[in-house]
Recover the amino acids of this structure.
Protein backbone atom coordinates (compact mmCIF):
# COMPACT_ATOMS: atom_id res chain seq x y z
CA UNK A 1 0.00 0.00 0.00
CA UNK A 2 2.84 2.41 0.80
CA UNK A 3 4.37 1.92 -2.65
CA UNK A 4 1.02 2.40 -4.37
CA UNK A 5 0.36 5.55 -2.36
CA UNK A 6 3.79 6.93 -3.21
CA UNK A 7 3.32 6.14 -6.89
CA UNK A 8 -0.09 7.81 -7.03
CA UNK A 9 1.23 10.89 -5.30
CA UNK A 10 4.18 11.04 -7.69
CA UNK A 11 1.93 10.81 -10.75
CA UNK A 12 -0.38 13.48 -9.40
CA UNK A 13 2.62 15.73 -8.81
CA UNK A 14 3.79 15.16 -12.38
CA UNK A 15 0.38 16.07 -13.73
CA UNK A 16 0.20 19.22 -11.62
CA UNK A 17 3.72 20.25 -12.62
CA UNK A 18 2.85 19.72 -16.28
CA UNK A 19 -0.31 21.82 -15.89
CA UNK A 20 1.70 24.63 -14.28
CA UNK A 21 4.41 24.47 -16.93
CA UNK A 22 1.95 25.33 -19.67
CA UNK A 23 -0.28 27.67 -17.68
CA UNK A 24 -3.21 25.32 -17.34
CA UNK A 25 -5.45 25.38 -14.24
CA UNK A 26 -5.21 22.70 -11.60
CA UNK A 27 -7.60 19.86 -12.34
CA UNK A 28 -7.68 20.44 -16.09
CA UNK A 29 -6.16 16.98 -16.60
CA UNK A 30 -7.86 13.90 -15.19
CA UNK A 31 -5.96 10.79 -14.16
CA UNK A 32 -7.22 7.47 -15.50
CA UNK A 33 -5.54 4.56 -13.71
CA UNK A 34 -5.02 1.76 -16.24
CA UNK A 35 -5.55 -1.26 -14.04
CA UNK A 36 -5.51 -4.23 -16.42
CA UNK A 37 -4.03 -7.37 -14.82
CA UNK A 38 -4.23 -5.77 -11.37
CA UNK A 39 -6.35 -7.66 -8.80
CA UNK A 40 -9.49 -6.11 -7.40
CA UNK A 41 -7.83 -5.69 -4.00
CA UNK A 42 -5.25 -3.32 -5.50
CA UNK A 43 -7.99 -1.23 -7.11
CA UNK A 44 -9.80 -1.10 -3.78
CA UNK A 45 -6.64 0.24 -2.17
CA UNK A 46 -6.19 2.82 -4.92
CA UNK A 47 -9.80 3.88 -4.47
CA UNK A 48 -9.11 4.36 -0.77
CA UNK A 49 -6.28 6.68 -1.79
CA UNK A 50 -8.65 8.85 -3.77
CA UNK A 51 -8.52 7.35 -7.27
CA UNK A 52 -11.98 7.08 -8.84
CA UNK A 53 -11.44 6.36 -12.55
CA UNK A 54 -10.04 3.04 -13.74
CA UNK A 55 -9.38 1.77 -17.26
CA UNK A 56 -9.59 -1.86 -18.29
CA UNK A 57 -8.64 -3.62 -21.53
CA UNK A 58 -9.80 -7.18 -20.95
CA UNK A 59 -13.56 -7.53 -20.68
CA UNK A 60 -13.87 -10.73 -18.67
CA UNK A 61 -11.27 -9.57 -16.15
CA UNK A 62 -12.97 -6.17 -15.93
CA UNK A 63 -16.39 -7.66 -15.25
CA UNK A 64 -15.01 -9.76 -12.41
CA UNK A 65 -13.49 -6.65 -10.84
CA UNK A 66 -16.68 -4.67 -11.33
CA UNK A 67 -18.63 -7.34 -9.47
CA UNK A 68 -16.06 -7.49 -6.67
CA UNK A 69 -15.99 -3.69 -6.31
CA UNK A 70 -19.68 -2.96 -6.82
CA UNK A 71 -19.84 -1.20 -3.46
CA UNK A 72 -17.41 1.51 -4.62
CA UNK A 73 -18.11 4.66 -6.63
CA UNK A 74 -15.80 3.78 -9.53
CA UNK A 75 -16.08 5.29 -13.00
CA UNK A 76 -15.14 2.47 -15.38
CA UNK A 77 -13.46 3.09 -18.75
CA UNK A 78 -12.98 0.45 -21.44
CA UNK A 79 -9.80 0.96 -23.45
CA UNK A 80 -8.88 -0.59 -26.76
CA UNK A 81 -10.43 -2.39 -29.72
CA UNK A 82 -13.87 -3.92 -29.26
CA UNK A 83 -15.15 -7.10 -30.87
CA UNK A 84 -18.75 -7.14 -32.06
CA UNK A 85 -19.71 -9.97 -29.70
CA UNK A 86 -18.56 -7.95 -26.66
CA UNK A 87 -20.43 -4.72 -27.22
CA UNK A 88 -23.44 -5.52 -25.00
CA UNK A 89 -21.61 -5.96 -21.67
CA UNK A 90 -19.47 -2.94 -22.47
CA UNK A 91 -22.56 -0.87 -23.21
CA UNK A 92 -24.19 -2.07 -20.00
CA UNK A 93 -21.25 -1.83 -17.59
CA UNK A 94 -18.98 1.07 -18.54
CA UNK A 95 -19.22 4.86 -18.37
CA UNK A 96 -16.56 5.52 -21.01
CA UNK A 97 -15.16 3.78 -24.07
CA UNK A 98 -11.79 4.77 -25.56
CA UNK A 99 -11.23 3.15 -28.88
CA UNK A 100 -14.17 3.58 -31.26
CA UNK A 101 -12.79 3.23 -34.78
CA UNK A 102 -15.72 1.75 -36.70
CA UNK A 103 -19.30 2.93 -37.07
CA UNK A 104 -20.56 -0.66 -36.74
CA UNK A 105 -19.20 -0.91 -33.19
CA UNK A 106 -20.52 2.51 -32.26
CA UNK A 107 -23.96 1.60 -33.58
CA UNK A 108 -24.05 -1.60 -31.54
CA UNK A 109 -22.99 0.22 -28.39
CA UNK A 110 -25.71 2.81 -28.91
CA UNK A 111 -28.37 0.19 -29.60
CA UNK A 112 -27.38 -1.83 -26.52
CA UNK A 113 -26.93 1.02 -24.04
CA UNK A 114 -29.74 0.67 -21.46
CA UNK A 115 -32.34 3.42 -21.60
CA UNK A 116 -32.12 4.00 -17.85
CA UNK A 117 -28.39 4.84 -18.04
CA UNK A 118 -26.79 8.07 -19.16
CA UNK A 119 -25.47 8.01 -22.73
CA UNK A 120 -22.17 6.19 -23.03
CA UNK A 121 -19.20 8.57 -23.28
CA UNK A 122 -16.97 7.61 -26.19
CA UNK A 123 -13.71 8.72 -27.76
CA UNK A 124 -12.70 7.89 -31.30
CA UNK A 125 -9.30 6.28 -31.57
CA UNK A 126 -7.13 7.80 -34.30
CA UNK A 127 -4.16 5.98 -35.78
CA UNK A 128 -2.10 9.14 -36.15
CA UNK A 129 1.05 7.31 -37.18
CA UNK A 130 -0.49 4.99 -39.74
CA UNK A 131 0.88 1.98 -37.87
CA UNK A 132 -0.35 -1.33 -39.25
CA UNK A 133 -0.22 -2.97 -35.81
CA UNK A 134 -2.51 -0.42 -34.16
CA UNK A 135 -6.23 0.10 -34.24
CA UNK A 136 -7.77 3.45 -35.01
CA UNK A 137 -9.37 5.33 -37.83
CA UNK A 138 -7.05 7.04 -40.31
CA UNK A 139 -7.04 10.84 -40.06
CA UNK A 140 -8.64 11.06 -43.50
CA UNK A 141 -11.66 9.11 -42.29
CA UNK A 142 -12.06 10.86 -38.96
CA UNK A 143 -14.55 13.59 -39.85
CA UNK A 144 -17.08 11.23 -41.40
CA UNK A 145 -16.88 8.81 -38.50
CA UNK A 146 -17.07 11.58 -35.89
CA UNK A 147 -20.26 13.08 -37.30
CA UNK A 148 -21.86 9.65 -37.66
CA UNK A 149 -21.01 8.67 -34.08
CA UNK A 150 -22.19 12.02 -32.72
CA UNK A 151 -25.61 11.37 -34.26
CA UNK A 152 -26.17 8.11 -32.39
CA UNK A 153 -28.79 8.57 -29.66
CA UNK A 154 -27.32 6.55 -26.78
CA UNK A 155 -23.73 7.70 -27.18
CA UNK A 156 -22.07 10.99 -26.31
CA UNK A 157 -19.02 11.63 -28.42
CA UNK A 158 -16.53 13.34 -26.11
CA UNK A 159 -13.35 13.57 -28.19
CA UNK A 160 -10.35 11.70 -29.54
CA UNK A 161 -7.88 9.14 -28.26
CA UNK A 162 -4.51 8.00 -29.59
CA UNK A 163 -1.57 5.78 -28.71
CA UNK A 164 1.43 7.24 -30.56
CA UNK A 165 4.48 5.15 -31.30
CA UNK A 166 6.74 5.12 -28.23
CA UNK A 167 9.71 7.45 -28.37
CA UNK A 168 11.99 9.07 -25.82
CA UNK A 169 12.53 12.10 -28.08
CA UNK A 170 10.57 15.02 -26.62
CA UNK A 171 10.04 16.71 -29.97
CA UNK A 172 8.53 13.60 -31.49
CA UNK A 173 6.25 13.14 -28.47
CA UNK A 174 5.01 16.72 -28.77
CA UNK A 175 4.48 16.42 -32.52
CA UNK A 176 2.34 13.31 -32.18
CA UNK A 177 0.09 14.83 -29.53
CA UNK A 178 -0.08 18.12 -31.43
CA UNK A 179 -1.38 16.17 -34.43
CA UNK A 180 -4.26 14.75 -32.40
CA UNK A 181 -5.11 18.17 -30.99
CA UNK A 182 -5.13 19.67 -34.46
CA UNK A 183 -7.41 16.89 -35.70
CA UNK A 184 -9.84 17.59 -32.85
CA UNK A 185 -9.82 21.31 -33.60
CA UNK A 186 -10.29 20.63 -37.30
CA UNK A 187 -13.55 18.78 -36.69
CA UNK A 188 -15.26 22.07 -35.81
CA UNK A 189 -17.36 20.30 -33.19
CA UNK A 190 -17.07 22.60 -30.15
CA UNK A 191 -19.01 20.20 -27.93
CA UNK A 192 -16.05 17.80 -27.94
CA UNK A 193 -14.03 18.35 -24.78
CA UNK A 194 -11.70 15.37 -24.40
CA UNK A 195 -8.22 14.49 -25.61
CA UNK A 196 -7.35 11.07 -24.16
CA UNK A 197 -3.61 10.89 -24.69
CA UNK A 198 -0.44 10.43 -22.70
CA UNK A 199 0.86 7.50 -20.68
CA UNK A 200 3.52 6.90 -18.06
CA UNK A 201 6.51 7.86 -20.22
CA UNK A 202 5.09 10.86 -22.06
CA UNK A 203 2.34 12.45 -19.98
CA UNK A 204 4.17 15.81 -19.79
CA UNK A 205 4.24 16.16 -23.57
CA UNK A 206 0.58 15.16 -23.77
CA UNK A 207 -0.44 17.76 -21.20
CA UNK A 208 1.60 20.41 -23.01
CA UNK A 209 -0.39 19.68 -26.17
CA UNK A 210 -3.81 19.75 -24.52
CA UNK A 211 -4.52 16.34 -23.01
CA UNK A 212 -7.54 16.41 -20.72
CA UNK A 213 -7.16 12.79 -19.61
CA UNK A 214 -3.95 10.78 -19.24
CA UNK A 215 -3.98 6.98 -19.09
CA UNK A 216 -1.38 5.83 -16.56
CA UNK A 217 -0.62 2.23 -15.67
CA UNK A 218 3.05 1.44 -15.09
CA UNK A 219 3.87 4.58 -13.11
CA UNK A 220 1.07 3.73 -10.66
CA UNK A 221 1.08 -0.06 -10.47
CA UNK A 222 4.57 -0.97 -11.65
CA UNK A 223 5.54 -3.17 -14.56
CA UNK A 224 2.91 -5.76 -15.35
CA UNK A 225 3.92 -9.40 -15.12
CA UNK A 226 3.61 -11.41 -18.30
CA UNK A 227 0.33 -13.29 -17.93
CA UNK A 228 -0.40 -14.51 -21.41
CA UNK A 229 -3.71 -12.61 -21.45
Amino acid sequence: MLELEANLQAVRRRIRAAELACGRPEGSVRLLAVSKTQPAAVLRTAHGLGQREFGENYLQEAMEKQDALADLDILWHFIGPIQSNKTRPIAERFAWVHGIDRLKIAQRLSDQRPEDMMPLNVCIQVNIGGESTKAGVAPAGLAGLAHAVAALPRLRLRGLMAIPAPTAEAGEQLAAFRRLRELLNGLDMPELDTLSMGMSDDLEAAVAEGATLVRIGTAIFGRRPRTGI
User: Anything to note?
Assistant: Residues 2-21 form the longest helix (20 residues). The chain is about 40% helix and 15% strand. The mean pLDDT is 94. The CA atoms of residues 5 and 49 lie 7 Å apart.
